[in-house]
Amino acid sequence: MLNQYETVFIATPVLSENQMKEAVQKFKKVITENSGEIVHEENWGLKKLAYPIQKKSTGFYYLIEFRGTGDLIEKLEVQYRRDERIIRFLTFRMEKFAVEYAEKKRKQKESGKLKEE
């Protein structure tokens, strides 16, 4: 059975837009080449970090929501660790309600009805 996951990685702020796109493509490819299916992705852009990581105070944030098997996570995280562009990452399995909430939020956003809570 496929689980749904959400992975967020933070790339070093010194990357050019092209280098960031390359990094994103690389990780999406890891997912799809290991029979994962990308559900949604969001580029959160350059954000301030809560605390400095590797002497950097900002980083490029990127989120990918995908379906896949547990062993895919291991392969993805090995690639994050090996990539010097990535300063932090977090992947977690979305339980049913998180999946439903994310879908609902996207639908609201698409219809432009997402009001400030």
Short characterization:
The protein is built from 3 helices and 4 strands.
Tell me about this structure:
There is one protein chain. The chain has 117 residues and is of the alpha+beta class. The chain has helices at residues 17-33, 70-82, 96-110; strands at 3-11, 37-53, 56-68, 86-94. Strands 2-3-1-4 form a four-stranded antiparallel β-sheet. The radius of gyration is 15 Å and the shape is globular.
Which helices and strands occur, and which strands form pairs?
Blueprint: E1 3-11, H1 17-33, E2 37-53, E3 56-68, H2 70-82, E4 86-94, H3 96-110
Antiparallel strand pairs: 1-3, 1-4, 2-3
Number of domains: 1
The CATH topology name reads Alpha-Beta Plaits
Helical content band = 25-40%
What's the gyration radius in Å?
Answer: 15 Å
Which descriptors would you attach to this protein?
alpha+beta, globular, Alpha-Beta Plaits, 117 residues, 3 helices, 4 strands
